[in-house]
Amino acid sequence: MQDAITDFVENLSLHHLRNVWFQQHGAPPYKISNVKQYLMEAFQNQVIAYGGPIKWSPRSHDLTPLDFFLWGHIKGQVYAIPPPTLKDLLRRITDACASVTPAMLHNVQREIQFRVQMCIVANGEPFEQYK
C-alpha cells in the first residue's frame, strides 16, 4: 500500500495535493499506529479516519464511495457471467478497475456532495433506504 500511495502522491502537484484526502473505510490495517502516521504525513494531515484529526464513522456505507459505487461497479462487470478460472477472475477485476473513467469519478464526487446533504437532513442516521 505504501508504494502505491507514495507513487500517487509524488505525481501530484502541491496545488492538487491540497485537495486530496485519505478516507479510511474501517479496515483494521489502517488503525495501526505506524500506518496512521504514514498516512498523516503522506496526506498532510488530510485524513478522515478512526482516531484521525477528522473523525469518520467506520463503514459508513451511505458516504463511502467504495461501498456506494466501486464495489457494485466491479461486481457488475466481473460477475455478469461467472468467470471460469481464477486467471479470468483476476483479469476481469483488473479490467473493471481500469474501466473507471474520470467522468465516473466526477459523478461520484457529485454524489458524495448529495449524500452529505442527505446525511445532514437525516441527522447523521442511515439514509440509503430513502434514496
UniProtKB/TrEMBL annotation:
GO terms for molecular function: nucleic acid binding. Gene3D superfamilies: Ribonuclease H-like superfamily/Ribonuclease H (3.30.420.10). PANTHER family: HTH PSQ-TYPE DOMAIN-CONTAINING PROTEIN (PTHR47326:SF1), TRANSPOSABLE ELEMENT TC3 TRANSPOSASE-LIKE PROTEIN (PTHR47326). This is DUF4817 domain-containing protein. It comes from Araneus ventricosus.
